[in-house]
Specification:
Elements lengths: L1 H10 L2 H21 L3 H10 L8 H10 L13 H13 L4 H8 L10 H12 L8 H8 L3 H18 L6 H18 L4
Helix pairs in contact: 2-3, 2-7, 3-6, 3-7, 5-6, 6-7, 7-9, 8-9, 9-10
């Protein structure tokens, strides 16, 4: 893990590294709270933004190098799926839960297992994040991870709408499924 941290420190800007370290801390805390493997949460958090600052050309090369088709959507969302596809080769990590969490930490997926939920929410609420409503999300994440997942997706969708940017259908599907699950489990409306 120390080598991965050093590689990240060398690869990322100080601000992005601080973000990743914040995600690690937050993901570990949420994993312990919700009964996920904290070691997997820590590993997924350290890996999630490894290629985040790579150029579109570098990401294209990294994907082609492992025979991967480029992901759909804007290049800014490619770093997770590409990291997941390269995880065994680049980091000797062959854990499907970690791969899934890293692959879908940006846009989500209609079916989000526990570790993926934790990483998605931790990425949005870690201590260096500053945006309207983040404190409410931090509080909610301590009470109900499913509702926090849905509300985090809501915030992401609102942000993308405000910038007239593309919204991944996977994000909408994840949001809808999380609200459906929350309503079913709580037998209430929101």
């Amino acid at each position: 893990m120390k080598r991965l941290q050093q590689a990240l420190r060398e690869r990322l800007t100080p601000g992005r590294f601080a973000h990743v370290a914040g995600v690690v801390k937050t993901a570990e805390s949420l994993a312990r709270l919700y009964g996920a493997d904290p070691h997997k949460a820590i590993l997924a958090a350290w890996l999630h933004d490894y290629y985040r600052e790579a150029s579109e050309d570098e990401l294209t090369h990294l994907a082609q190098d492992v025979g991967m088709a480029l992901p759909e959507g804007p290049a800014v969302t490619w770093h997770g799926p590409i990291c997941a596809a390269r995880m065994k080769r680049d980091f000797a990590v062959d854990d499907e839960e970690v791969k899934f969490a890293v692959a879908y930490h940006t846009v989500g997926h209609a079916v989000m297992p526990l570790l993926a939920r934790i990483l998605y929410v931790a990425d949005a609420i870690e201590p260096t994040r500053r945006y309207p409503g983040v404190e409410d999300l931090r509080t909610l994440a301590q009470q109900d991870l499913t509702l926090a997942l849905a509300r985090t997706a809501d915030d992401s969708i609102r942000y993308l709408l405000s910038r007239n940017e593309e919204i991944a259908l996977a994000t909408v599907a994840m949001r809808n499924e999380a609200y459906r699950e929350y309503r079913t489990c709580n037998r209430s409306t929101i």
